[in-house]
Specification:
With 375 residues, this protein is mainly beta. The protein is 0% helix and 43% strand. It holds the Pfam family WD40_RLD.
């Protein structure tokens, strides 16, 4: 969750589908029922989209666009939209079931990146400003200890530092990591399990952006970051990996002892870490209790998207594959005999599209949600 999955540029005749958990409208399909098959939606976006997901909310945007689109849970303003509804008459929640627009506060700015956590969202604009909104009782907003809720976009002061820009940003359940152009990593949010590096004695949360103390080897240059539920991971250009935080699922003790050369994608779910190599091989370690680790018969992949407890892949054969915990339909339709855990090579078909009539161009995965884009 909260990871931005880029959907590659394509002609404007794309078709976008979502499936999985939808109790708060996070799939953007105008209702609040889970979808067990890819369901077409119609966001008013041009091609070249990015999708990022929070606990129960979603953003779609294009790099360089002045508009982002939000749907889902807006109870704490995490969608930063004024227009929302209640899912039932006795509900205290506020949601939106179809996409509404968000524009940068500066009229000349464009959206560069968006990341999302459980009930919060972080925005990076082209004028080098960073904003947050939503709920942050453990520092998730980066606005200081006195600001635990922001119902609209609120700029994080003095960040990034002068002379730097944001290269990569990832958010997870309760913390955010930012890789800056000078190679340093900043973070904020819940750090009680060590996921934000070495903290001062008695400190549990980082309330404002701070450079992380990571105790890395002297020659370790970070080029990729990933965030799990209670851990953070870093990778160098030559494939050396460093993991901090909780080791409940073995993400530290089970990491590759050798460098992973030729890596293409570096990502994390709530309890596992994944690497896609340029040869199409998926390496993963950590939690596998519900099929989160890739099946042995998984074919080589062109693209990989990692959700909270499941993953998607586009095979070199052009097919869409899913594995992991699919309790909400986020791994596609499963029979009663198959249950809700996918531990095998499971192809997801798109109903209504004739075989050979389309190309799967992009994928994204969130908190029990899945997205696929075809042309």
């Amino acid at each position: 969750m909260g990871r931005v999955s880029q959907l590659s540029h394509s002609p404007s005749n794309y078709r976008l589908f979502s499936f999985g958990s939808n109790s708060l409208g996070q799939l953007g399909i105008c209702h609040v029922e889970d979808a067990h098959t890819p369901t077409e939606l119609f966001p008013p976006c041009p091609s070249g989209m990015n999708i990022t997901t929070g606990g129960n909310h979603t953003f779609i945007f294009s790099n360089g666009s002045n508009v982002a689109y939000a749907t889902g849970d807006n109870t704490f303003g995490q969608c930063s939209v004024a227009s929302s509804i209640k899912p039932s008459s006795d509900s205290s929640q506020s949601i939106t079931t179809k996409f509404t627009t968000i524009v940068p506060p500066s009229p000349t700015a464009r959206w560069q990146a968006i990341s999302s956590g459980w009930q919060f969202s972080i925005f990076v604009s082209s004028d080098n400003a960073v904003y947050s909104c939503g709920n942050g009782p453990r520092g998730e907003l980066g606005l200081g200890s006195s600001a635990t809720t922001a119902r609209s976009l609120t700029q994080i002061p003095s960040f990034p530092p002068p002379g730097t820009t944001v290269v990569q940003i990832v958010s997870t359940v309760e913390h955010t990591l930012v890789l800056l152009s000078n190679g340093h990593v900043y973070g904020w949010g819940n750090g009680r399990k060590g996921q934000l590096g070495l903290l001062e004695t008695g400190e549990k949360y980082i309330w404002e952006p701070a450079e992380l103390r990571l105790d890395l080897p002297e020659d370790f240059e970070i080029t990729g970051i990933a965030a799990g539920r209670e851990f953070s991971a870093f990778i160098s250009a030559d494939g050396e990996i460093h993991v901090i935080g909780s080791d409940k699922w073995g993400v530290k003790k089970s990491k590759p002892s050798n460098k992973v050369s030729g890596w293409r994608t570096f990502a994390a779910g709530w309890g596992a870490i994944y690497i896609l190599t340029i040869e199409g091989k998926v390496l993963a370690w950590g939690r596998g209790t519900h099929g989160q680790l890739p099946p042995n018969d998984l074919p080589p992949l062109e693209k990989l998207a990692v959700g909270s407890e499941h993953a998607l892949g586009i095979g070199l054969d052009g097919k869409l594959y899913a594995w992991g915990w699919g309790e909400h339909g986020n791994c596609g339709t499963l029979s009663k005999e198959q249950g809700e855990v996918v531990r095998w090579k499971h192809e997801v078909s798109i109903d209504g599209l004739a075989e050979g009539s389309y190309r799967i161009d992009g994928i994204a995965a969130g908190c029990a949600t899945s997205w696929v884009w075809t042309t």
